[in-house]
Amino acid sequence: MDIVSSVTSELGLKNFQVENVIKLIDDGATVPFIARYRKEATGSLDEEKIRDIWEKVSYGRNLEKRKEEITALIDEQGKLSEELKEAITKALKLQELEDIYLPYKKKKKTKADIAKDNGLEPLSVFVKEFKGSYSEFEIEAEKYINENVIDTAAAIEGAKLIIAQEMSENAQNREYIRSKVLEYGVIKSKVNEKNILKDEKKVYLDYYEYEEKLLKAASHRVLAVNRGEKEEILKVYVEIDDKTKDQIIQMLVKSYKNIEFKQFFNEIAVDGLDRLIFPSIEREVRNIITEKAEEEAIKMFKKNLNALLLQPPILGKAVLGLDPGYRTGCKMVIINKEGFYVDGDVLYITHSQGQLDDAKKKLKKIIAEHEIDIIAIGNGTASRETEKFAADLLKEIKSERKVSYIIVSEAGASVYSASKLAKEEFPDLDVTARGAISIARRVQDPLAELVKIDPESIGVGMYQHDINQGRLKEALGDVVESAVNNVGVNVNSASWALLGYVSGINKNVAKNIVEYRNQNGNFKSRNELKKVKGLGEKAYMLSAGFIVVPESKNPLDNTIIHPESYEIAEKMLEEVGSSVKEFVLKRDEVSNKVKNINIMSFVEKYGFGKETTEDVYSALLKDRRDPRDSMPQPLLKDDILNIEDLKPGMELEGTVRNVINFGAFVDIGLKNDALLHVSEFGIKFIKDPTQILTVGQIIKVRVKGVEIDRGRVSLTMKEV
């Protein structure tokens, strides 16, 4: 199998693009580095396309490796014919390969294997080609009676078992049946009456009597029934209709031409299908639709996580972080404008009026002394009581100082607070204080704070614990890596957790960078990175363009221009009669001169790569732009909303907290997020809700329905 040609054809690319991506990744290059700094080699492929290439290349390599393994395993058994070898070589899918290998796979001894041990295989071969009558076949079967085969009926039954197993292990049969079941099969679930009491909150009520065509089963429903089955609340199975079953039986017996034996082979086919083929095909098709559901869920996770990470920071604001709680009180921390922890305390706002008054008095003093701009409230237990407390407090100090509050997702805060990193950052604080710090800092710089948490713990999706954890971790890791490198990292302020996601830098090197910074002071240039232990030439090449050094004397160190392309920038400045030194002093004036450069003429004159030259040209024209600047700012509030205040038809603003394939959950200031179903987006057909909404987006909605007793609100965007 020619992997390059296969991937090229499948993705509609050119050979050189695929070949170069393979070579670069095999040589250790990262996807962000290739996408940004090797455009000539890839024809300007973006990160998504590069990852697509690598995924398919990895699949192809695994396929080839498995072919070698299977070939060797069958050869060891002395059963590798030229025909079989050719079938293995031509296989294009892992499933196809496993179908070919199935008859040769070591497994528990079956009834058919016992029949073979009893000498009945020749009889099974005989009957498949036999042209005579059934009575003549019975006479033939008598020859096979022995101490283990007591009579003619036992001999015939043994032959049937052998043929049924052959039918079930035939690769073409399995492929046909699998495709039929996928096309016409139905997935069903019923409640397991023995365990119905386990479902106290009736989480699985919709699936107590559920059925849906396999091909149309939505990913969230597939994952839901899988979870219900795992918890032994649901019984889940796949069914096919009688017409489809008849078609399968006809296919299984079509090669047997003796009309007198039609019923004979029909019985074998029915037995083989019910006892052997269908149970295994059922597992396979459920795996297929589960994998598809997981891929869709992971895709949704990735989009949500990317949007969450790229929420715009609110820089230069002092934040008061509140981690709400009942029994243990509300943890409070002060984070100054530079993001450093100043002080902390515990407030009791749900216990007694006296303690509530004391908490108000204490916070009024803190807000004034530390010039607090924003109160960040975690959205967990006691969140809405804390929000009411904050809203009342802000009304009382409105004339003295402009302060707003914001509800912040706590997802992963507890994971971070108990982590080794949190202990390193705040060794003298307890876990509750660290959690409050995480909440507050997410307002100042979401990306810098969220990278400290395993992506799968951030919780922007559904069923994250029900899907392949290795695949999820890898996919979400890619998202974080992409986001960090897209934004860029200030080497003199970044934590090692943030630096650990920079292209070419692992966590150990990231820690070494921070240690070097602590011992030697701020980095003075990109080049100084080479002095860090473990950061060699290769790591420097992969990382330098994504790290900025604002304090450097060389202004190019604070751009996305890679050091290997500084020569291009210097030549451009020479072309307009300027220099890097003048660029520092008169940036706007020099940038205006650079605008007049003809890129094509410049490329022809010096022989630089066109795409790289265009990127350098763009970087010289404008300051380094943070891609988050174009995102809408978080919704800051100064008053509270109660569910009792809501009436159908009311228009509100809300923050999208989570996007799933059946809609989105929107924070409109209530205890629970409100549901905006996909049917209420106001658009006729939506295949992917993430194309319309993103996590963190501020949207206008209208209240559609209110269920006060259940604390539920439904929203619509129609006619808004």
Helical amount = 40-55%
Number of helices: 30
Structural class: alpha/beta
Q: What's the β-strand tally? A: 15
Mind summarizing the main beta sheet?
5 strands, mixed
Strand content: 5-15%
Instruction: Please state the CA-atom Rg, rounded to the nearest Å.
Output: 33 Å
Low-confidence stretches: none
Strand order of the largest sheet: 6-5-4-7-8
Oligomeric state of shown chains: single chain
- 3D shape: globular
* First-last Cα distance: 55 Å
Mean pLDDT across residues: 91
What are the main properties of this structure?
five-stranded mixed β-barrel; alpha/beta; 720 residues; 50% helix
Describe the protein's architecture and organization:
The protein contains 30 helices and 15 strands. The model has no long low-confidence stretch (mean pLDDT 91). It is of the alpha/beta class and 720 residues long. Strand 11 and strand 12 (663-667) form a beta hairpin. 50% of the residues lie in helices and 12% in strands. It starts with a helix and ends with a strand. Strands 6-5-4-7-8 form a five-stranded mixed β-sheet, with helices on both faces. Strands 11-12-13-15-14 form a five-stranded mixed β-barrel. Strands 2-1-3 form a three-stranded antiparallel β-sheet.
